[in-house]
């Protein structure tokens, strides 16, 4: 089976600053791939290159089999994206947001109401379907944004710190949604700096100063560094210190 | 095509959700149309005139009397001396002072000629020029009267050439008639250019622009989806403006209304193109606002809306070659007041069309789906 994401020596420079330094990795289809790193480690830059939002300086990358240099518009048809910044229109209702993004992603007119009901039911937010998104609690907004990112049933979904600022229960519910999507065959590429979330991933990579320092399953990493939590692995790699 | 419709639908929904902006977009331009057309007025009325009468005779009284009967002038009073006259001007109590010398009547009767002095406060040069023109005309009128009377007594008449002016297209020299067509198009620049630029930059600020950039939306779909709502609002506004012009200002539209709409549409496309271009250059709403405001003021002041472009220095006239507002105001005035046909304004049509295409091409070249 073809890899969902493939990169080789992918690099992005801003002037003399190297944001992403020659990273090489593959993500298998249906995998939940965790992308970890401290703030400014280059996670968002790498993700933006893969989404076709940023042209790489050098190196290779394909997403869903399409080249990031030449076929970025093809990539965009096959991915979903949820940025750190909130990406729904606050001055539109839940239903209108779903309708708008459904339309932009080229869903058939008749399919949009069906899809809308599906999302509303799944998230249990039928009662606020016609409320403005601005009036929803943050956790609901994020779950809705995730569902909207999946509206066109993309092969891969990129999530940039999707659970920032929400309570642990909502985070847990959010991860249930991620699992469900992965079960359906969608590849999930997620950045986070919550180490408990790292445990939920199939494989985890850890970025430090633009370089990819480690890449393995959570269990594999813990064994390799001889610690009992992902937090400890992260401390050793990112801070160069051990909590032990 | 489908995506364009979804964009338009979304924009219109958002506009309706923002009643304050909608109200400002409709009411502010209408207020501007009314206020500018009534207030920005170069007719000079209510000039305060003071008189230093050194003669105190029938003739001097008659001359002063002529000023009294015109509503352009308001006689503030008599002053005893030149010195007081200067003080009055200095204090701003009079715009001009008429100084009638002693022996005014005697000189006029005996020598057939004399001189009066006009002191004009010329801080506002154009107003002073007009005031001076009015006053000179009145004095000339007076001297013609006197000449006629003296000639009646002693013949040997010199034939007089009377010049009678006929003002075409704006027979009453109404300033409003001159302003309305210009302001009407200036408003479209406001809505089409400024508001559209701010709208797109706002999407950049809140992050939905990035979200749109990872969707398969095509450049032209985005640009058209953003343009169409503003063109619709602009045309609505134009209609309100035309109706106000017709019924409030009583300006008959001499030319074809359809031609006016063709130009309004063309100009709106141009304005939205400009707004789009600004939005691709600006990172945030402050930058967009500043750039738009700078261009707007420049366009308006150079456009001939207030001051005739022919009297501007050569470099300003060159700059005006790039000023879309200049062309469209020419069109507005010619079509509305003179009844010009398409053939008369075809040059402006092609210049504006070229600018619109150029701006849209530049904007779509600058608009990147990458950050």
From TrEMBL, chain A:
GO terms for molecular function: ATP binding; ATP hydrolysis activity. Gene3D superfamilies: P-loop containing nucleotide triphosphate hydrolases. The keyword NAD does not apply. Keywords: ATP-binding, Nucleotide-binding. The keyword Acetylation does not apply. Pfam families: ABC_tran (PF00005). Residues 5-234 form the ABC transporter domain. This is ABC transporter ATP-binding protein. It comes from Larkinella humicola.
From TrEMBL, chain B:
Residues 128-370 form the ABC transmembrane type-2 domain. Keywords: Cell membrane, Membrane, Transmembrane, Transmembrane helix, Transport. Gene3D superfamilies: abc type-2 transporter like domain (3.40.1710.10). The chain crosses the membrane at residues 20-40, 178-201, 228-249, 261-281, 288-307, 345-365. One of its GO terms (molecular function) is ABC-type transporter activity. Signal peptide: none annotated. GO terms for cellular component: plasma membrane. It is found in: Cell membrane. The keyword Secreted does not apply. It is a multi-pass membrane protein. Belongs to the ABC-2 integral membrane protein family. This is ABC transporter permease.
């Amino acid at each position: 089976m073809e890899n969902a994401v493939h990169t080789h020596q992918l690099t992005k420079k801003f002037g003399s600053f190297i944001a992403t330094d020659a990273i090489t990795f593959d993500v298998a289809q249906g995998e939940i791939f965790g992308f970890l790193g401290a703030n400014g480690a280059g996670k968002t830059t790498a993700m933006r290159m893969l989404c076709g939002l940023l042209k790489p300086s050098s190196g290779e990358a394909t997403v869903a089999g399409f080249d990031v240099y030449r076929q970025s518009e093809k990539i965009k048809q096959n991915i979903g994206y949820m940025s750190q910044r909130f990406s729904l229109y606050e001055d539109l209702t839940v239903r209108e947001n779903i309708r708008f993004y459904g339309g932009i992603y080229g869903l058939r007119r008749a399919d949009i109401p069906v899809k809308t009901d599906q999302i509303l039911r799944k998230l249990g937010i039928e009662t606020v379907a016609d409320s403005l998104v601005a009036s929803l609690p943050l956790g609901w907004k994020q779950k809705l944004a995730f569902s909207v990112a999946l509206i066109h049933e993309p092969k891969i979904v990129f999530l940039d710190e999707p659970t920032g600022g929400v309570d642990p229960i909502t985070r847990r519910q959010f991860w249930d949604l991620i699992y469900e999507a992965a079960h359906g065959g969608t590849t999930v590429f997620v950045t986070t700096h919550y180490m408990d979330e790292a445990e939920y991933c199939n494989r985890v990579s850890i970025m430090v100063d633009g370089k990819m320092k480690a890449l393995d399953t959570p269990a594999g990493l813990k064994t390799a560094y001889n610690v009992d939590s992902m937090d400890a692995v992260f401390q050793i790699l990112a801070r160069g210190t051990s909590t032990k | 095509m489908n995506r364009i419709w979804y964009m338009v639908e979304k924009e219109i929904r958002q506009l309706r959700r923002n009643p304050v902006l909608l109200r400002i977009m409709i009411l502010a331009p209408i207020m501007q149309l009314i206020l500018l057309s009534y207030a920005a007025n170069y007719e000079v009325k209510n000039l305060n005139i003071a008189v230093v009468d050194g003669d105190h005779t029938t003739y001097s009284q008659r001359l002063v009397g002529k000023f009294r009967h015109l509503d352009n002038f308001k006689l503030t009073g008599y002053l005893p001396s030149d010195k007081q006259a200067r003080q009055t001007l200095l204090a701003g109590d009079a715009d001009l002072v008429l100084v009638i010398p002693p022996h005014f009547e005697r000189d006029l009767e005996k020598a057939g000629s004399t001189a009066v002095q006009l002191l004009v406060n010329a801080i506002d040069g154009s107003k002073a020029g007009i005031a001076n023109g009015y006053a000179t005309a009145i004095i000339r009128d007076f001297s013609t009267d006197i000449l006629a009377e003296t000639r009646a007594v002693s013949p040997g008449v010199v034939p007089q050439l009377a010049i009678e002016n006929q003002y075409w297209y704006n027979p009453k020299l109404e300033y409003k008639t001159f302003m309305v067509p210009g302001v009407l198009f200036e408003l479209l620049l406001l809505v089409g250019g400024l508001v559209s630029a701010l709208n797109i930059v706002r999407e950049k600020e809140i992050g939905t622009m990035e979200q749109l950039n990872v969707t398969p939306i095509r450049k032209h779909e985005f640009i058209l989806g953003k343009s169409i709502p503003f063109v619709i609002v602009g045309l609505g506004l134009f209609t309100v403006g035309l109706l106000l012009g017709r019924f409030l200002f009583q300006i008959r539209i001499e030319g074809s209304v359809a031609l006016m709409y063709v130009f309004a549409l063309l100009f709106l496309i141009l304005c939205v193109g400009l707004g789009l271009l600004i939005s691709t250059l600006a990172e945030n709403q402050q930058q967009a606002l500043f750039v738009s405001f700078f261009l707007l003021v420049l366009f308006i002041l150079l456009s001939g809306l207030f001051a005739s472009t022919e009297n501007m220095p050569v470099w300003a006239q060159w700059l005006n070659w790039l000023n879309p507002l200049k062309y469209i105001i020419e069109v507005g005035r010619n079509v509305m007041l003179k009844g010009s046909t398409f053939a008369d304004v075809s040059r402006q049509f092609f210049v504006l069309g070229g600018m619109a295409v150029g701006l849209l091409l530049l904007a779509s070249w600058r608009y990147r789906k990458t950050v």
